[in-house]
Specification:
The complex is a heterodimer. By secondary structure, chain A is mainly alpha-helical. Helix content of chain A is 70%, strand content 0%. Chain A is globular. In chain B, helix 3 packs antiparallel against helix 4. Classes of the chains: A mainly alpha, B mainly alpha.
């Protein structure tokens, strides 16, 4: 079987290779050998049990935000607000966590997870309503709610939740029964990873095997066509936006209950934005999201160990993420222009770019 | 009285980076490109300006470096959205992630995470010195004077009165018609994004070269997103955007001063700081379908 040079897997691998070629520049400036550096980023973390588990720990929040972003993007809803929705989930977890000490984990955990999902969905609600009721572009409204969520977190941490004894801006510790148990003894890998896999599995099933998933994909590919086929596009978008927000909220719960056991100012170093990288690199499919999140987890763990062994600042990880996002969408867009007639379809959307594969010829 | 003078002076000072950023973003959006790379462009401008001024001892060379990296960032954004026709908001987020990463990478490499390095902040210029107490409202950095007296009027004149500004507005409003009229759509968007990038980076450099005299992590702290909000608040008009920047800066400077007064420390000032975002979202909701987005907003242009 001949593999087209423009098929999705080839294109994603090409994006990774082009990214590595571009980021070789900063590595050389840092005085390291790029080949050796990429070995340290990608291969070295795979060689010990400790770093393998760290990859999964690092991948956990971005599996969830990646799935959240991918679901919204598939519906043609541009949720740039996963970061804020994650923070709201974390706020809910930090608020509920200390109160459920009297309950067994079998009750405490679902209550907290549901609370976080509700918080994330609530944060996604206003932009979604503005979009479906008034046609107001959601890019800016979802984006602008991210700094508002951060201000809310800071307000809580410097106000009512400030530690009364030490004065540290940290919320009270959550109850022991609300902590996510670790999956493997003496490791940091926690229930959140399992939760993320379940979310990805369910999302994959719903998207590819159910009428609701079909409606969602149809709305994303062609809102007019979907409307013509009798699909309530507004309701579909609203549903996708709320589910997306809820999943991002669960990512926040997972970071609070699995890692920090309380809310702190440094809870998310931009997991919501990384979710956009994960979703795009995974070309908005759930298996793709899973692979992309683990790949980025691998890179992140590798970047922090390479900082020690090779003297390359670990911030290179962020550079790679940014360049990777740009090269992936550039290649997807170029493919669309090769295979589609100008002006056809929803030009400029990642959904359209990913779908362009099925329409060539 | 003293409090008021101090407050107004701080308002002008803190508004300066927002003015550069808002004018820059207005140029990008009026040409039809939402540039969410603004947060990263301001960041890299702040870092490149500081690092250059630190290395050469010349703040002017620092400003020049900021302009150069700003034009570079605008060019990458143009390459993505104009040449490749890629999705605008995802391109912008990618640019921001990459540029913040690159700045922090270079910061780590050059300054090795050692103690905070400082430069002499740029001088304060005040032609009204000696006009009594009120005159000290105008104790401002040269870049603030340049922003309000030079950049804003010039940017307004170019956009609204010059033929080049007409071309920017035309390719942002209706690229097909502009193309038919002989305007080079791609080149116009490239230039608009480059001008915008240079202004954004200058706004970032103002923070390191004048306001602080040093570079710290998270130095932009969402000011780029504030500018995105201000452009919409100003309905894509430069004058109204600048008024928005002054209002935001007034609220910001006020809460900063109230915070240290006895009895005010416990108020939820974060709510005040969230106001500009909430006001913009509220304004969008109220104006409903009547928001006058540039016609070609978010749409790449291809010749049919």
């Amino acid at each position: 079987m001949r593999v087209s040079p423009w098929s999705t897997p080839v294109l994603v691998v090409a994006a990774v290779l082009i990214t590595f070629a571009i980021t070789a520049g900063p590595i050389i400036v840092a005085g390291a050998n790029p080949i050796e550096a990429y070995g340290a980023f990608v291969v070295v973390p795979l060689t010990s049990q400790f770093t393998l588990l760290e990859i999964l720990v690092t991948a956990t929040p971005i599996l969830l935000t990646g799935a959240a972003v991918a679901i919204a993007f598939r519906a043609g809803y541009w949720n740039i607000g996963a970061e804020g929705q994650l923070l709201l989930g974390a706020v809910m977890a930090a608020g509920i966590g200390p109160l459920v000490g009297g309950l067994p984990p079998i009750l405490a955990l679902p209550i907290m997870i549901a609370g976080g999902a509700l918080g994330g969905a609530a944060w996604a609600l206003v932009p979604a309503l503005l979009r479906v009721r008034f046609g107001i572009d959601e890019v800016v409204t979802t984006l602008l709610l991210n700094p508002v969520a951060l201000l809310l977190v800071n307000g809580l941490l410097h106000g009512p939740w400030r530690d009364p004894v030490t004065g540290f801006p940290e919320s009270p510790r959550i109850a022991v029964s609300a902590e996510f148990p670790s999956l493997i003894d003496r490791s940091r890998l926690h229930l959140g990873f399992l939760l993320a896999l379940v979310v990805i599995g369910v999302a994959w099933y719903v998207l590819s095997r159910t009428p609701a998933g079909l409606r969602l994909r149809a709305a994303g590919l062609s809102p007019h066509g979907a409307r013509f086929a009798g699909i309530d596009v507004s309701r579909t978008l609203l549903g996708a936006a709320l589910v997306s927000g809820a999943i991002a909220g669960i990512a926040g719960v997972s970071e609070v209950a699995g890692i920090q056991n309380r809310l702190t100012g440094g809870l998310s170093p931009g997991h919501g934005y990384t979710g956009i990288v994960v979703a795009t690199l995974g070309t908005l499919s759930m298996p793709g999201v899973a692979m992309a999140a683990i790949f980025l987890g691998d890179l992140t763990v590798g970047a922090s160990s390479a900082a020690r062994s090779l003297g390359i600042p670990s911030q290179l990880g962020a550079v790679v993420q940014g360049v990777l996002l740009l090269t992936t969408i550039a290649l997807l867009a170029v493919r669309r222009h090769r295979y589609r007639r100008p002006g056809a379809g929803d030009a400029g959307s990642v959904t359209g770019d990913v779908a362009a594969e099925g329409q060539r010829g | 009285m003293n409090f008021l003078v101090d407050l107004l002076a701080a308002t002008l000072r803190n508004a300066t980076p927002l003015v550069y950023g808002t004018v820059g973003e207005t140029y990008a959006e009026r040409s039809g490109v939402l540039n969410l790379g603004i947060e990263g462009t301001m960041y890299v401008g702040a870092f490149a300006g500081f690092a250059t001024a630190f290395a050469t001892g010349s703040p002017l060379l620092g400003l020049l470096a900021a302009v150069v990296v700003g034009i570079g960032a605008g060019t990458v954004m143009a390459l993505m959205t104009v040449t490749f026709g890629a999705n605008q908001h995802v391109s912008g987020i990618g640019l921001t992630i990459g540029l913040i990463g690159l700045s922090e990478f270079a910061n780590r490499l050059i300054f090795a995470g050692g103690e905070l390095q400082r430069i002499e902040p740029m001088p304060i210029v005040n032609p009204f010195r000696g006009v009594g107490e009120i005159g000290s409202i105008f104790d401002q950095y040269a870049l603030t004077w340049v922003a309000f007296l030079l950049v804003v009027p010039a940017a307004w004149w170019v956009l609204q009165r010059s033929s080049f500004g007409l071309e920017i507005r035309a390719v942002g409003e209706n690229p097909e018609a502009a193309d038919a009229a002989g305007v080079n759509v791609a080149r116009t968007r490239y230039v608009a994004l480059m001008i915008g990038g240079a202004l954004m980076a200058l706004g970032g450099a103002f923070i390191t070269l004048a306001l602080l005299g040093s570079f710290t992590l998270d130095i932009i702290a969402g000011r780029g997103w504030v500018c995105v909000a201000l452009v919409i608040f100003g309905r894509w008009r430069i004058g109204r955007g600048v008024i928005g920047a002054l209002l935001f800066s007034l609220v910001f400077s006020l809460q900063f001063r109230l915070r240290i007064l006895p009895g005010f420390g416990e108020l939820p000032f974060e709510l005040l700081l969230a106001l500009p975002y909430l006001v913009v979202i509220g304004a969008l909701a109220l104006s409903g379908r009547n928001v006058a987005y540039p016609g070609a907003y978010l749409k790449p242009y291809r010749r049919g």
